[in-house]
Amino acid sequence: MFLLFYLSFWGVLGSQNQNLSTTTTTTTQAFVTPGDDNGQCTTCQFRQQSKLLRLHSIKSQILSILRLEQAPNISRDTVKLLLPKAPPLQELLDQYDQNGGISEDEEQASSETIITMATEPQAITQLVGMPKCCMFALSPKILPDSILKALLWIYLRPAEEPTTVYIQISHLESSSEGNNHSRIRAQKIDVNARTNSWQHIDMKQLLKLWLKQPQSNFGIEIKAFDANGNDLAVTSTESGEEGLQPFLEVKISDTGKRSRRDTGLDCDEHSTESRCCRYPLTVDFEDFGWDWIIAPKRYKANYCSGECVQKYPHSHIVNKANPRGSAGPCCTPTKMSPINMLYFNDREQIIYGKIPSMVVDLCGCS
């Protein structure tokens, strides 16, 4: 049963991961060679194949969920340049560092944060002298009634002397309407000389307007004038200012509740258990060569392996009569949970969101 499932799965997955199929197929053939009597533990071999299958499944699953045909080609050096050096992102990275780089199960999580980087506004808003910022591609997960907070983060260049900075946020409109921007938010702050800083502005009401009236979302214009009329806001990626562009941090409520884990067998790699059991497995994205995943770099995925007791006494007779059939139950995940992931998409935008069904919580026979 397991062999049939593995070969069927690999036939589909092989078309997506041809570069990995040769190694795994060779391993599989060595595993199923008839008459293998070298004394190796058959249960351990099955377990190793289950682990390999789980790793390949995770890679394929992540790309599928994120609707990526292939992993974004973003190097580690590019990540360092693009990753905003901002308080909310640093807090997230610090949390992962405190956990040893491994994302733990978050049973009490009731919210999700989505971070979207600024991009260039639509051409319809562009006039001579108009800035090239800022448009935000909103995730379909964000609904008006689910928004807990929405903050626009802006980085200010240092002023030459202590001064008062007036931050102005204007709503961009279609250039065909004449007046192509209208001021919607203003904030005054005092800054010290030669001190750069991150500032945030509440955008919850504007975000709700954009969601209820998507046709009104042409982006925003950001200005931050000091007493001498100098604009201190970083709104584009200039040399030496990489990672300082504006971004939108949106926290939404997560209504999905997870019940406590049911009872089931948990084993370790040294276990001699032959029944269906959950085994520990840590996935390392750096081993995948996936530098586009910012955090976690590793997480506990787990996998299932083992034999399933036949439900009916005569099942073994059916299996002998039809050895290639699928009459018997398989050891598979019966309960899974998500992980939170901070990553770059294929447009070099940073997303912090929940990836479903990435952790095996429970294994069973089905």
Structure description:
The chain is an alpha+beta fold. It has 2 domains: 2-74 and 264-365, Ribbon (Cystine Knot Cytokines, subunit B); 123-253, Sandwich (Hemocyanin, Chain: A, domain 2), CATH 2.60.310. Helix content is 25%, strand content 29%. The protein has helices at residues 2-14, 18-31, 42-65, 76-82, 87-98, 204-212, 285-288, 315-321; strands spanning 102-103, 111-117, 147-156, 163-172, 181-191, 197-202, 220-225, 233-234, 247-253, 277-279, 282-284, 293-295, 298-300, 303-305, 331-344, 350-365. The strands form 5 sheets. Strands 2, 3, 6, 8 and 9 form a 5-stranded antiparallel sheet that branches. Strand 15 (331-344) and strand 16 (350-365) form a beta hairpin. The longest helix is centred in the N-terminal third of the chain and has 24 residues, at 42-65. Residues 1-40, 103-108, 257-261 and 312-325 have low confidence and may be disordered. GO terms for molecular function: cytokine activity; growth factor activity. This is Growth/differentiation factor 8. It holds the Pfam family TGFb_propeptide.
Shape: elongated
Q: Give a count of the beta strands, DSSP E runs of length 2 or more.
A: 16
Strand content: 25-35%
CATH architecture of the largest domain: Ribbon
The structural class is alpha+beta
What's the mean pLDDT score?
Answer: 75
Order of helices and strands: HHHHHEEEEEEHEEEEEHEEEHEE
Largest sheet: 5 strands, antiparallel
End-to-end CA span = 11 Å
The low-pLDDT segments are 1-40, 103-108, 257-261, 312-325
Radius of gyration: 26 Å
